[in-house]
Structure formats: C-alpha cells, structure tokens
Amino acid sequence: MKVEEYRERRIEIGGWPVNLTTYRLGEVFHCKADNVSPGAALARTTGTTREEAEMKAVERAGELLARTRVHAAGS
Amino acid sequence: MANYAHPETLVSTDWVAQHASDPNVRIVEVDVDTKAYDEGHVPGAIGWAWSSQLCDTVRRDILPKEQLEELLGSSGISNDTTVVIYGDNNNWFAAWALWQLKIYGHKDVRLMNGGRKKWLAEGRELSTEIPKPAAARYHASGPDNSLRAFLPQVQDALEAGTYAFVDVRSPQEFTGEILAPPGLPETCQRGGHIPAARNIPWGKACNDDGTFKSADELQALYASEGVDGTKPVIAYCRIGERSSHTWFALKYLLGFNKVVNYDGSWTEWGNLVGAPVEKGKAAVSAKA
Prior knowledge:
The complex is a heterodimer of chains A (75) and B (288).
Chain A lengths: L2 E11 L2 E10 L2 E8 L5 E7 L2 H16 L10
Antiparallel strand pairs in A: 1-2, 2-3, 3-4
Chain B lengths: L9 E2 L1 H7 L5 E7 L4 H4 L6 E4 H4 L11 H10 L7 E5 L1 H16 L5 E4 L2 H7 L29 H10 L3 E4 L3 H5 L22 E2 L15 H9 L9 E4 L5 H12 L5 E3 L3 H5 L19
Parallel strand pairs in B: 1-5, 2-3, 2-4, 4-5, 6-7, 6-8, 8-9
Helix pairs in contact in B: 5-6, 5-10
C-alpha cells in the first residue's frame, strides 16, 4: 500500500507547539502528534477520516502536555 | 552527497527503494515510537525496538556484545552485509543504532537520509509484512569505547577544559525550564546543563524534509558556537539518542576526528549528587 494524502501542520496545544502528521493507508487515516522541538511522539491515532484521527491525537497530546511543569530557570 | 566527509554513510530514499531487495543489503527501521514499524514500513525492512532490543534490559547500558551478535545474526546480517538504518524523528534512534553498530565494529552501516518522515512524505510503498530472513553468523569486535563517553571521562574533560560540550536538547531543557521534553515524564532531579556546554539543538542539523543540511551549512552552524573540530567534542542530550544524531553529523558528515556520545546524558548528570549545573539562558545559542 502507498502513503497517500500526507500532510503536516503545526498547531499549539496548551502553549506548546505540536506537529501533526496525517496520512492515509488504505481506508485508514493515521495521525501522529509530536512536540516540535524535541520531536518526541506524544500520540499515534487512527480514524476513518483525517479529522477523526487528528481529533484523537490532539486530545491525547493535550492530556500529556498538561502534565509538563515549567520551572524557574534564572537568566 | 553535499560535500560530506564520509558521504558513503548516507543513502537516499531512492537508493533504498532500488536496493531493498538486494541480498547484500539489510534495511532496518528503528523508531522512537516502537509502534510505527507495525503500521507499515519500507518493504523488506526489519524492525528493531530500541527499548528492548538495543539496550541491556537489566542494567543501564548499550546492548552487550553477545546480544548484538544474536540480534544481527537473527536479522540475517553478517559482517559483510550493508546495513541501512532509518527511523522516525529524522533518524534519532536510527542514529543510536548506527552508533552501537560502529562501537561493535560493523564496517558498512548507513543512514537513510530523511528517515521515515521522508519516505512517508514521498508517498512511497509501505508493507506490514514482517520479513523472516535466514539466520546469519555474526562476529562483533570491540567494543570501541573511543566513540562513547562515560561519566568519569566527562567529569575529567569538564575539569580540564579539553573538550567542547554540545548539548543538543531543546533550549527549554537546556535552561532548566523543563526537565524533559514536553509531555514526557520528568527523569532528572535538576534542570539545566553541564557548565560550558553550548546549546545546539539536534534539529538545527536538519532540513524541513528531515535530511541533513549540507556540509557547509553544518560547518557554519557548529562553528558559530565555537565547535569547529579543533577540540574533541562530547555530545549529550537526555538519554543519548538525540546526541547520536549530532554525533553522526559531526563525525561522518563533517569528519571531526574525535567526537564521543555521552549516552548517560542528562538523565545521569541531572541526577548526580554534587555535579556542577548551570541554568539559564546565558549559553543558549542566539539562533535558538
């Protein structure tokens, strides 16, 4: 099977930049959310539409990012 | 390829598409997200899980020599096989795997430039079929620990000022604002960086499509932070995979003579009692 309808876009969730990568394999849309700068994967989801896959990924990424604590770092 | 010092260590996605079924070539996917391989991979590629197959699962260490021999043998890799590794996040753990194969003396191991991201973006074929290669016999050499920094060496280098330190994490991890990449569990007691380290995030070495920047661009990037190869370099991040990516760029694309990957990285240094830690933005790259 070929990768089709590949798209990347950058959004912000809870103040953190997030990269959403979505593409279709056969009948299934796959979405991966990662935190842009470090690039670590936050969520990998699927859906019958791009919107469904992205919505699940955004929801899961939001849960994880909400746990991130920001500390005082001095100057 | 882009005037690199060792262009033979990189192959293009086109090259992989043409050689995936070559019996002398073994394509291997190594991802941060170990589920990615199952979703679909380069046809004929085998998958290695970094968290269970590329490390000692009892003590914190790289894969022991005997286990590496077993892994490569069961993957149909002999000492003469050309191994091409790729993965997600622009080859983070692919570079980690390559670093280990170099430590154990594999002669011909390369990265697929751009990794999984580029393969997907180009709309190429994916397969969910898991290959079952005939077992091969593999004899590792080494380990060549000249490619790796352990804590005592890092401490000595810091005291003597004999090495350039490159912290490849994000600026916020470097300053100590966050203790782990956003969304991931905190894995250290203190935030900040090793004093004297320069912050050159790994991603600055990449183009938007995930491929490495040209040799000239890489040279300018690192030289702007005083890292020009005249001093040996210690690269580090949080657990050593992002710094493998930078280690690869410095050693094979720029051809620096002495570059070591400190895989203990911040999860070791940031948990040490009494280790010197610098916080704040003073040493963050102006271009970050």
